[in-house]
Design goal:
Chain A has 543 residues and is mostly helical. In chain A, 79% of the residues lie in helices and 0% in strands. Chain B contains 8 helices and 10 strands. Chain B is α/β, with parallel strands linked by helices. The chains are: A mainly alpha (543), B alpha/beta (237). At the A-B interface, α8 and α9 of A face β6 of B.
Chain lengths: 543, 237
């Protein structure tokens, strides 16, 4: 070790502190996930996988799961690429910031609220059918089934594709555009020489991500599938567990889901490769291919349609909610209690998620120096990858583990909170982990030279840099937990309704006015809490 | 006829109003030097058409090109960085200068190979930019300028990242190409010794104006005017 004796000691102690926290977090996650996996495998010993696969219903479910995920991916990516390209071609126009804000909303929109908005527009009595009827056009558009699932999946994933793709377009250096202008490249040449290679790098990874998300989509399929013909593995697990009380089938479906998911994650890892780009230079240069009137008109049309597609369902929720039952909302005890319960669960789940993420990120911070940690990191990546694969499979495992006590209310709450924290981890951890790693590599040597360590380092150096990513992690986890329907549907009891569960029940009973009030409240709470958390945490970061 | 003629060309960059008057002879090599942010690159961008003037006319080889798009101007420019597309081979990067959609005819391949040979890149055409050195990347950019066959060559500090010896070699190469093909060259440099080594004339630019233009020997001769002395003092130590 370099430096003086006291420095060495201080460094060692802070290191071991971080390491202990990291080991504890890893242990907690491995225990929960490993435990539930072990429970799944143990109870699967008497299940004949061959006969499960021979079951024609299960084969149909697997087929439909893959089919809807493929179509959703095709549509989301196929529409997302032209939208991202249109946004990239016009780096400044009035309304561009608004459009980007609209595309950010689906991330914070609870799934069930978006579904409510989709139903309000495309449902039997929705705006679309009313509009068609008003124009004397055939107006029998029936939402439920594959159509509804696709619309909702595109609502969530089109903005995701645009958000992931746009930075790739923007990372093309300004000099490349000058060069293209100088060489006289037209739209087609720009597409072939600049955009196609960029898409070839980016699109496979993005497609796989979208496919995975649609593959394990739960609430959308549950609410819009409309029956056994349009059921995915996640929903089938839920139904086996909660309605048929067929634990054996739930376990075999969960294992099937995990196996397919693991293969998909493995495939996506194999295809993952870093994008070739020379160092970034944040200059903008006008694109030579964006000046033609036809191209411009097409871009405008694409952007308007995509913007409306994403904004309308949310707008409907707010408009109809604002006109209608606000008074009912304020007087309903059920709604108030559900809201409080949701906020409590989201607060605890997001704090737990932050603690886990901080501990994991802190133990990762010294990654390059410790070879032993590599397999810990590998295990962690695998567990997190596995989580994206199937929340319901995890839930089934937890259900098995805690079966004797799962009827106790506090066990139900604890499981919902833990499951939400873990489900939010794959979204909350990366931002934090990267920021902590960057901070470590930037400041470690300087801090060591100046003897800044431990608490002073946390307070003076790390906290100002990390409060923004911490806020983002907390806000994302809060918003996700607030909108969760999977965990609460699995472990919730009738007297534990959260806002999403209440909304789902109200929609199922066609009490649309009440559902509307719930949807508005949930949407507003989600946006407000995310804005408040990230706003408060990020406030001093700019100084 | 002049290669470049600026008559009271104005341009605004944020708070700074620039006003350029300049005359460049056909076939000469002129260095543009001056402090950072003085407007050297802006001047090149105005010639190449990446920026449009607020007022005034720009004539290239006797033709008023104000408002023309970059591809139509008799100009080719090499940047400090990002001259090549990272995913294309050097050969393809050069070939873009012949056809921006890479639709090559039979005889075009020979032209690309010849240009690569002219800048000293024989047998490197199949490499990607990341597989060659910084100097070789800029040579490839020069080769593309050659196949574009434009009489005006603008260099926006393309050799800034290279060491002194390599920089001199590159300037010698540019001058050899200029003489062989009758090009007019304008180059921006932060290194006064580059100008001393390779330029026929030097234009000194400060605060958005061309302050003085002089043959290289006269420009560096002592005693120097105050502004030039201040700049060179800071640059040469």
């Amino acid at each position: 070790m370099d430096g003086g004796l006291s420095l060495t000691r201080m460094r060692a102690s802070s290191l071991s502190g971080a390491l202990i926290a990291g080991i504890a977090a890893n242990a907690a996650i491995i225990l929960l996930i490993g435990g539930s996996l072990a429970a799944l495998l143990l109870s699967a010993t008497d299940i004949d996988l061959g006969s499960v696969l021979a079951d024609s219903y299960i084969r149909h479910v697997i087929g439909f799961t893959v089919w809807q995920a493929s179509l959703s991916t095709l549509l989301s990516v196929g529409l997302g690429v032209p939208v991202a390209r249109a946004l990239a071609r016009h780096p400044s126009f009035p309304g561009r910031d608004l459009l980007r804000a609209i595309f950010a909303l689906p991330f914070l929109t609870p799934v069930i609220v978006a579904i409510f908005g989709v139903v309000a527009i495309y449902g039997v009595g929705g705006w679309l059918n009313r509009g068609l009827a008003f124009l004397d056009l055939p107006h029998g558009f029936y939402l439920y089934g594959l159509k509804g699932i696709l619309i909702a999946h595109v609502f969530f994933n089109l903005p995701l594709v645009v958000t992931l793709l746009l930075p790739r377009f923007e990372a093309v250096p300004a000099d490349s555009w000058r060069l293209a202008a100088q060489l006289g490249m037209g739209s087609w040449a720009v597409f072939r020489v600049i955009e196609l290679p960029l898409l070839r790098e980016a699109v496979p990874n993005i497609s796989l991500l979208v496919f995975l998300l649609c593959f394990v989509s739960f609430a959308v399929v549950l609410a819009l599938g409309g029956g056994p013909a349009a059921t995915t593995l996640e929903v089938a697990i839920y139904q086996a567990l909660r309605f048929d009380f067929d634990l054996g089938r739930a376990v075999s479906l969960a294992l099937l889901q995990l196996a397919i998911g693991a293969i998909l994650v493995g495939v996506s890892r194999a295809f993952e490769r870093p994008m070739q780009l020379m160092p970034k230079l944040r200059l903008t240069a006008p694109r030579p291919d964006a000046t033609g009137p036809v191209g411009r008109a097409i871009d405008i049309a694409i952007l308007v349609i995509a913007g409306l597609f994403v904004a309308l369902p949310l707008l409907t929720v707010i408009i109809e909610g604002a006109i209608g039952p606000i008074r009912w909302m304020l007087s309903s005890k059920l709604l108030q209690h559900s809201a409080l319960r949701s906020l409590m669960i989201a607060s605890l789940a997001s704090l737990l998620c932050l603690c886990l993420a901080l501990a994991l990120a802190a133990s990762n911070r010294h990654r390059p120096r410790r070879r032993k940690n590599r397999w810990v990191a590998g295990l962690q990546a695998a567990s997190i990858g596995g989580l994206i694969v199937s929340p319901l499979a995890l839930g089934t495992g937890l259900f098995l583990l805690f079966r004797p006590v799962v009827d106790q209310p506090w066990v139900g709450y604890a499981l919902v909170i833990a499951m939400n924290a873990i489900m939010a981890l794959p979204f909350g951890l990366p931002a934090l982990s990267q920021a902590m790693f960057d901070a470590a590599s930037e400041d470690d040597r300087l801090c060591a030279t100046l003897g800044i360590s431990g608490w002073s380092r946390m307070r003076l150096i790390d906290w100002p840099k990390l409060r923004k990513p911490i806020g983002l992690c907390l806000g994302l986890a809060f918003s996700l937990a607030l909108g969760d329907l999977s965990a609460i549907a699995l472990f919730g009891r009738d007297d534990m309704a959260t806002l999403p569960l209440l909304l789902y029940q109200q929609m199922g009973a066609y009490r649309m006015a009440e559902a509307n009030a719930t949807a508005v409240l949930l949407l507003i709470l989600s946006f407000l809490s995310f804005g408040a958390i990230t706003g408060i945490m990020g406030r001093h970061a700019r100084r | 006829m002049l290669a470049v003629e600026f008559n009271a060309v104005t341009f605004r960059y944020e708070d700074m109003l620039m006003r350029f008057d300049l005359a460049v002879e056909v076939g000469e090599c002129m260095a543009l030097i001056g402090p950072s942010g003085a407007g050297k690159s802006t001047l090149l961008n105005l010639i190449a058409g990446f920026e449009e003037p607020l007022s005034g006319r720009i004539k290239l080889l006797g033709v008023d090109v104000t408002g023309w798009p970059p591809a139509r101007r008799p100009v080719t420019m090499v940047f400090q960085d990002h001259n090549l597309f990272a995913h294309l081979t050097l050969f393809d990067n050069v070939a873009l200068g012949i056809d921006p959609g890479l639709r090559l005819k039979k005889e075009d391949s020979a032209r690309v190979e010849a240009a690569l040979a002219e800048v000293g890149l024989v047998d490197l055409g199949h490499r990607k930019p990341e597989q060659v050195s910084g100097g070789e990347r800029q040579r490839a950019a020069l080769a593309r300028s050659l196949v574009r066959n434009r009489p005006l060559l603008l260099l926006d500090e393309p050799f800034a990242a290279l060491g002194p010896k390599l920089r001199r070699e590159m300037i010698d190469l540019v001058n050899a190409l200029r003489r062989a093909r009758g090009l007019t060259v304008l180059f921006v440099s932060h290194q006064p010794e580059d100008a001393r080594h390779g330029a026929d004339r030097v234009a000194f630019i400060q605060a958005g104006q061309v302050r003085r233009v002089a043959p290289t020997a006269d420009f560096f001769a002592e005693p120097r005017p105050d502004d030039v002395a201040a700049y060179l003092g800071e640059a040469e130590g």
